[in-house]
Amino acid sequence: MTRGDWTVDWTVHRPYWMKSKEYWNNSFDERYRKLQEDVDKKKRPPLKVRSNDRISHQWIKNNLGVNVKTGWSVDPFGHGPTVPYLLKKSEVTGGAVIQRLHFAWKEWFARTQNGDFFWRQNWDWSGHTDTLVHNMPFAIYSIRASCGPHPQVCLNYDFRKVKNEFTDYSELAVFIDDENVKQKADVLMDQYGRTGSVSPYNVALIPLGDDFRYDHDVEWDQQYTNYKKLFDFINANKDRYRGAEVGFGTPSDFFRALRDRAAGHFPSLRGDFFVYSDVFSDGRPAYWSGYYTTRPYWKVLDRELEAKLRSTEMLYTFALNDGRRHGLSTVKLLEHDYEKLIKARQHLALFQHHDAITGTSKAAVMTDYALKLFEGLQNCASIQSYAVQSLLSKAADRGAPLAAKVVVPDSDRQTYDQPTYRLALNVDESRPRNVIVFNPHGRRRTEPIRILVSNPNVRVVDSAGTAVEHQVNPVWNVSETAEQPLAMSKLCFELLIVAVLEPLSLTTFTLHKTPPEPERLARVYCKNCAGHSVFTVRPMRLGDVQLENEHLQVVFDGKTGLMSSVVDKSTGVLQHVSIDFAAYQSAQLRSGAYLFMPDPNLRETEKKVLDDYPGPSTVVVTSGPLSSEITVVYGIVTHTVRLYHGRGIESKGLYVENVVDFKKPPKNRETELFMRLSSGISNGEPAVIYTDSNGFQMQKRVTVKRVGIEGNYYPATSTVYIEDDKHRLTVLVNHAQGVAGWEPGRVELMLDRRTLYDDARGMGEGVVDNKPTLTKYWILLESVTSSGGGGHHRDHVSNPSLVANMLSEGLLYPANVFVVEPNAEHLLRPTAAFANTAMPCDVHLMNVRTATDPVFQQFPSSSALVVLHRKGYDCRVDTGYRIPECRLRRDKGVFDRGTVFAGFRDLRVSKTTVTGVHHLDTVDRLEQVEVSPMELSVLNVTFVV
User: Fold this and answer.
1) What is the pLDDT of residues 170-183, one digit of tens each?
2) Dihedral angle, C-alpha 714, 718, 721, 727, nearest 10 °
3) Active-site positions?
4) What does each C-alpha distance from 630 to 502, 557, 673, 773 come to in angstroms?
5) Over 410-441, what HEC string results?
6) In 10 A of CB 627, how many CB atoms?
7) Which site among 2, 250, 730, 842 is 20 to 30 Å from 51 CA-CA?
8) pTM of this prediction?
């Protein structure tokens, strides 16, 4: 309305069904019965769902006959590029709507009229990943903030008036009649015109909705009736409004009009929109970088379920189709367990909500989320046990029904808020014990496996009867005495083996009792701890502590027990890489579940949390033939650094564990604890770091000092690194957390946060339900060469090294360990393999997920979605040695000629979209499958019985 002859198409995303409160109080099945009636009236396909099914693209396609064409993402706290990529790969080609961006981005988009753009992936030079995105121009999606730039005006156009409900909008809004329609239309069109003025395309999208809306039938009638009167008046008086036309519509209508007006020509954008910042409270920027770390216990629990569910999906798919092929009675049990699998999927998906995985819900709600995650873990454990038992049953027993469960996971949780515990195996002369290990990766791996045993005198053999190297470590318990805070357990010991595992395989290791072998016992050096007669405990020596293996020599400060330097033995170069712990003091009422804000009066002063303790209360060094480690215990954190001595990739890095315990409030109030690595790497001034985006790609981050440390924290879900032209320091994480590179040569990782006060962003309470949390890391110090290229042929594209990718996959998706019950070993075969060839080591097998039957959706189909990701890696980063378990291909192929998958030679394979809804192409043989670097590819594999 502000320029010449342009017109405004006003669109509203109207929910398909509007139901009363009484409707939603009905049971789930009753709601679906009523929903079925509505569908029948619309002559849509019948609903065939159960109450435990999950709403998804497949559900919408199967039950409503509709393909999802637009994305709607208006409430994440910042946006990354992976979601638009996934939408593109799901044939969501209409466009995507995003909302919450840094206020400076909003201003820039409005000023330059670039709020409609193609979002392009960093590595894409052809534009094939372009996804059309519309940025809503105002701060939030509510009615008060979406009709135009003036909230007090927009409130007058919210016509909800529900009996006994009193709100700011119900007081202000006046229903439209013949007397006021002209004046109301004039004001409304002024707001629409201002909204449209930030775009050059003569079309505006104005949503009409808010949180917790349309829960009464009367609201829809009120909103629709009043707006219809306004629209009719505007459309009947085009001369008055310069030809503007308004009407109800959908996002698809909006994007269609947008494409017509732009003739397909939009600017393109690379990168992401972190960190999100608003100016809601007092006109000062507030950075939403706290939620990256808030409630890390839940974030770790989420990753645990993700890894467990992934392995369960694979084992279930293999066991189900193997059972169908051989006519096993286990099929009925596995089909019955499919509902458990669906529930585990639902619970994991539910926790991806933007107030769940973020940790930004009230404490009671977070408890409910955790209980669902715990239920998902229990369901996965049960399914895994029966699947492994079915896959390893001997031929003579395969037709018989499954007896009692004889295979159980070696670890479990009693409740969601208790740490994982492991079963201790009792091994004696008459009763060897079998342990089964599942490798959930598509290539051969060497994996450190830790098993608890009741007797230290054991030997280990593989399924061929070959002896496997092992090491026996003490198990430490927390003691109540200040003189000896740690004490060795007298009931169990830790058995460490480095297992060689074939691709997608189940491998059995047998533990036998043996005469004592002192060379297998770890040597223990200890300060302030209680020993055990089995181990010789030596006092700590004065001075620094040194650990080394074939590749690294690591020095730890003799006073603090923390790492101070590393020597790369392949080059002889010493790097001063140190670890320390510190904290920020939270700004009261400003730092909370969402926001991170250090106390402005102490901004330049770190809280030296370790200074509250007179040195570590305990230092323990454990050294043996397979690994060496040092553990230091402070009051707030127990810190372990471990080196492996083998020749696999695990010996290339430093494995780190932290157990953070804030104790019960009011201890450590307003504390934001972080671990910091300091090095001599010259990564720019201002400093530059790289963080991953959803574990899918890397994003360059340049420190901006003027916005403070809170504006320079970024989310890391798997990887963060810094580098110069000679060295790279990489940290791999096992869960999502905030990271920063505030000073050159430094990386800091936020570990936990306790803020007593709400930050006024909707939660209404502080975060004080911290729990002791175990976090795991790999630290790599790698050499960078000037040749190789890798992913660095363009400045804004960077990739981890091949070693980093492989270590990260092992950290996120470790091998699954199972224990065979005593006297049941004779029932099972020792091995089973589900791939006869290995995938290239730059290809990550993301999942092998059984698809739901499209008609009987409580049952599994005979098809599975095989999800592949070919990861980019940096050839400039010299690994320093050949990776034994790594094989690369010169082409884009994934499978070798003659590959047999899950024992099936007769497979029907087709390429599909990510959600499995759209068929793309038929594949005659697996060796025809190609995946380009950085890309995802999904196969629909049907097992022909």
Assistant:
1) 777 899 999 999 99
2) 180
3) 75
4) 31, 11, 21, 19
5) CEECCCCCCCCEECEECCECCECEEEEEEECC
6) 24
7) 250
8) 0.92
